[in-house]
Amino acid sequence: ENEKFVLISHAPDSDSWWNVIKNAIQVAGDQMDVEVEYRNPPTGDLADMARIVEQASATNPDGIIVTIADFNVLQGPVKDAVDKGIPVITINSGTQEQSEKLGALMHVGQPEYDAGFGAGKRAAAAGAKSFVCVNHYITNPASVERCRGFADALGVELGSQMIDSGQDPSEVKNKVSAYLNSHQDVDAVLTLGPNSAHPTLAALRDSGLAGEIMFGTFDLSSEIADAIKAGEIDFAIDQQPYLQGYLPVVILTNYARYGVLPSGHINSGPGFITKDNIAQVEKYAGEYR
Amino acid sequence: MSTPLIEMDNIEKHFGPVIALGGVSFNVMEGECHCLLGDNGAGKSTFIKTMSGVHKPTKGVMRVSGQDVAFSSPRDAMEAGIATVYQDLAMIPLMSVTRNFWMGREPRKSFGPFKWIDFKHANKVTMDEMSSMGINLREPEQAVGTLSGGERQTVAIARAVHFGAKVLILDEPTSALGVRQTSNVLATIDRVRKSGIGVIFITHNVRHAMAVGDRFTVLNRGQTHGTAKRGEIKPEELQDMMAGGQELAQLEGSLGGTV
Amino acid sequence: MSTPLIEMDNIEKHFGPVIALGGVSFNVMEGECHCLLGDNGAGKSTFIKTMSGVHKPTKGVMRVSGQDVAFSSPRDAMEAGIATVYQDLAMIPLMSVTRNFWMGREPRKSFGPFKWIDFKHANKVTMDEMSSMGINLREPEQAVGTLSGGERQTVAIARAVHFGAKVLILDEPTSALGVRQTSNVLATIDRVRKSGIGVIFITHNVRHAMAVGDRFTVLNRGQTHGTAKRGEIKPEELQDMMAGGQELAQLEGSLGGTV
Amino acid sequence: MSDERIKQVSAIRRAMIRPELGAICGTILVFVFFFMIAGDSGMFSAEGVQNWGVVSAQFAIIAVGACLLMIAGEFDLSVGSMIGFAGVVIAILSVQWGLPIWLSIIAAFVVCMAIGALNGFLVIKTGLPSFIVTLAFLYILRGLTIWLSILTTRQTIIGGVKEAAEGDPLAWLFGGVIFKGLFQWLGDIGVIETFTRGSRMGQPVVDGIPMLVVWALGLVIFGHWLLTKTRFGNWIFASGGDAQAARYVGVPVNRVKILMFMFTAFCATVFATCQVMEFGSAAADRGLLKEFEAIICVVIGGALLTGGYGSVIGAALGALIFGVVQQGLFFAGAESSLFRVFLGGILIFAVIMNTYIRRMITGER
Amino acid sequence: MSDERIKQVSAIRRAMIRPELGAICGTILVFVFFFMIAGDSGMFSAEGVQNWGVVSAQFAIIAVGACLLMIAGEFDLSVGSMIGFAGVVIAILSVQWGLPIWLSIIAAFVVCMAIGALNGFLVIKTGLPSFIVTLAFLYILRGLTIWLSILTTRQTIIGGVKEAAEGDPLAWLFGGVIFKGLFQWLGDIGVIETFTRGSRMGQPVVDGIPMLVVWALGLVIFGHWLLTKTRFGNWIFASGGDAQAARYVGVPVNRVKILMFMFTAFCATVFATCQVMEFGSAAADRGLLKEFEAIICVVIGGALLTGGYGSVIGAALGALIFGVVQQGLFFAGAESSLFRVFLGGILIFAVIMNTYIRRMITGER
Ligand SMILES: Nc1ncnc2c1ncn2[C@@H]1O[C@H](COP(=O)(O)OP(=O)(O)OP(=O)(O)O)[C@@H](O)[C@H]1O
Ligand SMILES: Nc1ncnc2c1ncn2[C@@H]1O[C@H](COP(=O)(O)OP(=O)(O)OP(=O)(O)O)[C@@H](O)[C@H]1O
Ligand SMILES: [Mg+2]
Ligand SMILES: [Mg+2]
């Protein structure tokens, strides 16, 4: 009873997407009657994240849930935790192979490159040839992976099609408008999350291109959901973060209490949300979806 | 005897453990130049800073024209007609002569709620006042940093006189100046005094004091060593008083006379 | 006549458009105190900075003990035995007396490749030298910022003498000092001179110069106005020379004698 | 007592050497450069101009505050955190607490200016360098912002402000556009391009002047007037030039400095409010590194880091240069990560030039 | 000439008032605090100690460089960018170009120290404040880092260094651990916990002292010795205290300052190399905001922002406080966003205390 788990993400304090996961562990914690802490490196520095993993394992929790933001960085601390006998479940970014190499029980998540690749496939099917990938977090390796997957699926070189937009919404918006202005041939836009999707949407609306060009984004928010309904965004790649937070807690609790464990990994995403399936998603966007 | 322009009665000033002034009394009359002499660290600067509202006295009474006053800021002292030219000049080198001249009392024009500095007037007055002191500026917008030490000193004095000071305090105005600049400043003091303003002149240099002073007060380690009138005291005596009368004597021989 | 310790031959120094020195010749002999006088901006500080390696002369020859030299840094000048006490003191207030005293020439002990300052020795020497100058320090670790102006001046002089200077240059050491401190510094100069060191003493104050000087050179606007020996010239003449002989005359009357 | 050894300087040269000269030259240079390499990329079409205009205006808003504060001898590293904080305060008050927008905005201004005053108060009372005090507030405010927004909304991004702001009088003042009619007419007569496709076909691509730009212009004019024409401006220079000297002649240095900290906070809040009104959401990470960008604009504009010298016009030109370069590189299609390299280069170059100019003015060596 | 008007201070008081006094008190306070609120959370188990020990050691490494530089009167905002840059250089050279690790490490040291020297050279030649020059390099280096890593690998993270580093002599120096035997023995006799299952069963949870900690200790000792015992240390104080005065007595101020910039770069590179060797990858975002953290440690440690005063021991204690507080809050389970609020508070508190102490020492007012 009253087991203690720690979830460690790689996201900086300001990344709003993680709210869903925070909410999920809250719900799971209440339901299972366990204590779940959320921790992250404040600036998003992965080296700091490794320290947090070490620190978490020093407190001897009943389980650790961790993202594989960078396999290299995390393998030491995570392996140490596993060797100490702490059950570990990996979530979010990273691959299932990496998860196995780390000795984790299972992986719940979505590989970034593949998700980008899938998005690219869709765009290619819609006839896109030239795109821009709005990267609001260029210093984060996973973000570049997404753009790379997208480019590879379209069969084009990534090059300067990925723009370093910065985090500030005005900056993002203006940079996107500038780019679209000077590259009239762009027919697809990929944004990597609400942080870049919202301003990009504003930029497209301002230039009257919303709904005209192919627009895909990662992750969901209420604003993105509205835009999908309005036909301004074609699809959002949903990795269902709720599951990434909820399932590991439930599984770890049951594992701790009764030793039961599902076999195999769980793919929480990528799921594509389009106009067709938006209705059911919309209600909880940004909070549980 | 008329009431003094300013009168300090038994002023004490402590800085934490340091007793900078231990009961100093002092006054200055209209049209008089009262010299304040003393060694390094005697408390001269502290004393006049008290007089001009920079420090608040720990104990003692200040009277301006017979009225008790307590200054809470240099502004108050200025309002009361006490103008001070500090040892460290109080000029801002990067700013123009006009701006420095008027600092703190800028002349203003207004239109409705808007008020702005009347630069035309300010420049004219500055040029006039400076040339009446014998300094011809290239232009009033010249930065003070480009003036020589003597010129700066003169700007500071001209400013004080212009704003209708009743008492002008000068803290070691001559210590860094050459002979010619020094005699200029002394002449200016003389002129100012003759116009009826009371001057308090601080210096280490007995001869400078003797040249323009009407009365002389010597401070030593925060105490007054007495006040003397012009003609009542010889330079050598004054010097002995400043030095405390000891030590110095044995050097006198080899160095000859007053230093 | 023996060779001068240091000889400056027709030195010029330009700062961009400003000609600070326009051909100055000067020398100092063993055991002599040579005073350099002049108005503000005459170029005194510039001249001695040239002598001590801070500035490079634009033109002219420098000789130390008869040998042509060209200093590329103050260090070179120090190696050649020229020690300077600058107008702005060159002391670092937050550092201890010992560290200031030895600055640039710290005594070292070594062990293999490691070298470190020999603080025991350094402290002892500092205390000794200071007390031989008549200053008793509380402790050698005391920060220089806690010393009075006169005490700092003495540290600077003691330092120069200790490092076996052949020539000691003092730039207005007395301008900010009180009477007692001044006579101390003058006495120190006297002592130093008697030990065979050549002293170059810069001042505005004719009387200070007359007290210890053997020869007097007056600079004016970057030019020498001639050199005079002790006894050959009266203070009044020297003063006239410094001021350029004009203007001043008319003030003399009201101010009386030398300033 | 003038000195015959110093050559006289010519009148033209004298008229030219002013704090903002470097920034003026820089602006010309930058425009010529981008005309040449990106003249045909749409950078100088109505839409393009609006694009970099808005970016520059944003920089200008915070640069004016930073400029006056820097001239008064202090600087403020907490501007960026303040921007995030102000936005979140507005959003929480209006969306979460249901206050009307105008009240939320006023509350944000009050709170932020109070924090600015606290900054100033600490700097003055403790005598510490403002670098340290405001660095502390950089962390404190950012931490509070994240903590507050998570505490009240369990999110770090708070949306829905746009809906709440419908028809609000103050909201328009920060998020609206003016001269709509004029621009529609300009579009109709073909001076400005109109949309040729999409939902807004027929409307001009630029539909008015955003209030953001109006604010920027207003603040620049106000700042310039305040600094050069008024008594208070004289005191700002004096406080930064030599606080002790200023105090001696009766300038209320403490009041000046605290007011300037408050003005900086005011500018940061204007920035934040405009942004929140434009995007309809506030986020805890807004304004990251903006403090540096403001300082860079000011320094490019010729102000002295140590205070007592500078110009608001210069700072505004600095903001213009910053904005044009940042956006221009996109129009020119340069690798976007190189922007930072450029920025650093321009900064060093500008400052060296400004130093040279300042030495000419003040005769400083 | 001693002055009877000043009371004598007691010997104990004199022995106590030293630059690092504030930091010493702070350290004690912080430890007591965390003992109380997180004593049973594993924070003081071997593993927990290693955790905050390593974090503190990291801070200490950059703090030593920043401390000496600050005492020499300058400071360096490009430290954080330098860390990212150095890591990427090592990774590109070794993984992409296939150079041996030791050569890559040496190359990174050479390049970074050259950049440090360039920083110093610019500061000295132009006479600009180091704030501006190094701010420019903050942007330039970060831009270059991103651009380089994307150019060569199309990613902002470069992995695979660990594989390349197998058996490399220099790599061990930065990424290894020492005293393995000792710790194994401690584990065997039960002083340290051991793994209870898995492939490493029986091994101690802490398998030695990481080289990172060794580096930190080494640098602190070296820095302290250099500063307080050697001639060069005296020159560092002098250069920061009054550069002009130091120059006059023959201290080669320019050389001292440039060397200190290089030393700071050296420390940043040590930090980067240890990180790369430990984690096996380099990323473009490493080191973000580390410059501030270094400055904060130094200032908490009692150094004066304007130079000429400070202590390496103090800076190291500052780093310890920083590390313990940061990790301790996690151990105590506090909301992590509040960390920044704490940090800001500690900073202000520490600096006020240090100012008070300094005034007592120097008689400054
Ligand atoms: N703010 C202060 N705090 C503490 N002590 C002070 C302060 N100001 C002055 N003192 C001390 O008070 C004493 C008198 O100083 P003051 O500056 O008044 O001397 P002074 O006569 O003007 O000397 P000088 O001739 O060198 O200008 C000195 O011992 C000085 O150290
Ligand atoms: N680094 C410099 N650059 C330009 N001009 C300089 C420089 N140093 C000095 N000068 C100028 O050279 C002239 C001589 O200055 P210097 O300091 O040598 O005079 P001084 O005789 O020492 O005066 P004082 O008695 O005031 O100390 C002055 O006009 C001064 O402005
Ligand atoms: Mg004084
Ligand atoms: Mg001089």
UniProtKB/TrEMBL annotation, chains B, C:
SUPFAM superfamilies: P-loop containing nucleoside triphosphate hydrolases (SSF52540). The keyword Cell wall biogenesis/degradation does not apply. Signal peptide: none annotated. It comes from the Bacteria. One of its GO terms (molecular function) is ATP hydrolysis activity. PROSITE patterns: ABC_TRANSPORTER_2. Residues 6-246 form the ABC transporter domain. This is Sugar ABC transporter ATP-binding protein. It comes from Thalassospira lohafexi. The lineage of its organism: Bacteria, Pseudomonadati, Pseudomonadota, Alphaproteobacteria, Rhodospirillales.
Automatic annotation (TrEMBL), chains D, E:
It is a multi-pass membrane protein. The keyword Magnesium does not apply. Coiled coil: none annotated. GO terms for molecular function: transmembrane transporter activity. GO terms for cellular component: plasma membrane. Keywords: Cell inner membrane, Cell membrane, Membrane, Sugar transport, Transmembrane, Transmembrane helix, Transport. InterPro entries: ABC_transp_permease. The chain crosses the membrane at residues 21-39, 51-72, 79-99, 105-124, 131-150, 170-187, 208-227, 258-280, 292-325, 337-357. Part of the binding-protein-dependent transport system for D-xylose. Probably responsible for the translocation of the substrate across the membrane. This is Xylose transport system permease protein XylH. It comes from Thalassospira lohafexi.
